[in-house]
Design a protein that fits this description.
By secondary structure, this protein is of the alpha+beta class. The protein has 5 helices and 5 strands. It comes from marine sediment metagenome.
Amino acid sequence: METRFGSDALYVEYTDPGFILFKKVQERIVEYREQFGKAPAIIFLQNHGVFVGANGVEEIRSIYDSINKRIGSGIENGPPNCDLEEYESNTSQVISDHYGSRGLVSKSVRCELVDHFSGSKD
């Protein structure tokens, strides 16, 4: 985030949807305003998406174009190496049983990249 967006964007860690998420975003916007003296134009909500704020449609399009360019600027490096490792957990067993009862197969895997975006293997 910091490398591509610097102080242009606010990132809010995963929070359950609803009022709890609203309060977390509100709190983080207040902190951002105190630090930078303005509201963030770009807000990334982990697992919820990206929101932008501007004074008009053209400015919003421009911000989204900027986001796409910044994200794309690192693509030449290719995707990170992610050696998959199979694992079992209570959740993966329930999922496997569910699909198995329908004649399907499921496999649970993990890697460092996935672990980065999930709080728990279970």
